[in-house]
Amino acid sequence: MPITQQPVPEDSLLKTYRGGSRPEPWVGQGDCFAMAVAQPVSLGDFVFAFYTSPVFRIERAILRILAGAPSTDAEARGVADGSGSSFAIWRVGQRTTTQLLMCDRFEKTRSWFQVAPMEGGGTLLRFGSAVASSRNRETGALSVGRGFRWLMGFHVLYSRVLLGAARRRVTKK
Question: When comparing pLDDT for 29 and 52, which is higher?
């Protein structure tokens, strides 16, 4: 089943959440990648599979070394099942029964997870992220920084790889 890039749903916490110290840079930001799986998948199982996938373990190691942010599978499980509030450099921004929004401690990025039951018993898994805009000193307009724009191609590929890795873990059950 292919991974597709879609518009961020209007009811997504990635669009509707305005918490944090600076809510204005998030207007209109975000991406969404989706894939269907044939069986029911809970939000907790999806998030745990994502954060404990072999691919994401590499990111966890990098964050431990470069950001001084160690993380454990137990912390991933806590965030996934709703009993924990932080994991590595992220904290839970908002949660519903079908969505989870994680905000980084620097207020620069957000990660979003959603499960949507499908007819016939399958589940649509969605993952998205957003990068905060900054105000241009000359024009006053909000835009994403040059560095983040430069990395966008890698980000799209990496998002697809992460979602595929999570799919492999949730479908092994």
Answer: 52
